[in-house]
Amino acid sequence: MFNQILTLASIVSTASVVRAVIIDSAFLENDFSKIGSQKDIYQYLYGNAPHFSYPVNNSIPLDIPETCELVQVHLYARHGERYPTSGSTANGINAIWYKFGNYTSSFNGSLAFLNEEYQYPFANSSNYGLLTTPANVANPYNPLLGSITGTTEGLEFLERYSEILYKHQNFTAWTSNSLRVHDTAEYFIEALGDKFKVNLQTITEDPSQGANTLTPINGCPNWNESASKAIMAKYDQTFLTDISKRLNTENPGLNLTKTDALNMFNWCGFEINVRGYSEICDVFTIDELIKYGYYGDLLTYYDEFIGNPLANAVGSVPVNATLTLLNTPEDKLDQQVFLSFTHDTNILNYAAALGIFTDSPALYPESIDWITDFHRSWIVPQGARIQTQKYNCKSSNGTSSSYVRFIVNDVVKPLTNCSSGPGFSCSLPDYNKFVEDRFKDVDFYSQCGVSKVSNITELSFYWDYKTHDYNAPCEI
């Protein structure tokens, strides 16, 4: 029944804007059967492809354990599917398209589809960085659009947490001022229905916001954005050369480079977001996809995750703020559901500071790590979400204790050495100690050099939203 509701919601959300766009009949005739057919490769595409649930399910029920009552839930979510951003990502894809457009012979091999009436999905630069919606794609019936992911996520959240949601039908939610993030939040909130009045506050991503932000990495001038450089130089990237050589052999004179081959993976992922599938993805062998997947894991581990020495400091900002709320008695809170929307990098920093996906040994470039549970695309696909549950449970003697656990992309992710509570949760006192130990030598403001850009030392929007109206203008 719930799947029928989601399908209906998708159709309704699409139907409201179909009359405003020109529908290309070729998409409806030829593309619809292919939509979603490449789901098996999403896990290799650096988190650029559509949302999927965490693929290793430990079978722990998502339901709150019996004898327990959910008293708080926190959502930390990434925006839904989008177009490539302007700059290096879009430029890299466009450079390949330029070579294709200037090729004077017929295409052969896996590029033969370009001989047909192929429609380049990134021709309109005004779409760069935007959430994919029925209004900005050629096929508005694509169910993998970012707008539908936002709607679906909201409906799923309502189904799972309706009881606690209805305790406070008027509440506040928060989003960064990135337009795609803000739009995702709006689709999510709209899906909750008109019984809820949600005050969506928009917080600037500007570095001057310091710690009072959903994007604390922006306020960290000391962050090394290329911490992975030495590591990546050791990783065997001949698979990229193999791709370009193969395509150039099939199409003499095309002159694709190793860099072009790398950028084709971006083309593949983002085209799926726009069209629902991509013929460019068929260029790659499964071996090449796996090697690219690990390429992305390495890059992320050292640039955005615990391989970067400041990841804990940056991630400590949302972790500490959430911990403060978890330690606040519910009768002292105006709401018990906290919705926050941001980007993949911020979620990765948050997960690093939480200590989830950090148990495996560090990733190394000499060979693919087949054991690790750290995979960028598994943690932050488009529409990624981490939920924090706090529930109170009664013991046989009538006393009540509080517990905390985390759900990552629809799968319960217990904390190592802190999962002995009901539903493999961590008792709140133990979780306090867990965080204290992780942040013993961590100080976001001093380690990040925040004073260079801001004098704001702590996150406060979860508490001062009644007296401070956060309404930053949206930016792409």
TrEMBL record:
Q: What class of enzyme is it?
A: hydrolase
Keyword Isomerase: yes or no?
no
Task: State the superkingdom.
Answer: Eukaryota
Q: Which residues form the active site?
A: H79 (nucleophile), D344 (proton donor)
- GO MF annotations for this entry? acid phosphatase activity
The signal peptide here is 1-20
Catalytic activity as recorded in UniProt: a phosphate monoester + H2O = an alcohol + phosphate
Q: What are the top taxonomic ranks of the organism? A: Eukaryota, Fungi, Dikarya, Ascomycota, Saccharomycotina
Q: What is this protein called?
A: acid phosphatase
Question: Per the UniProt record, which EC number(s) apply here?
Answer: 3.1.3.2
Disulphide bridges in this chain?
C68-C393, C268-C281, C418-C426
What does the UniProt keyword field contain?
Disulfide bond, Glycoprotein, Hydrolase, Signal
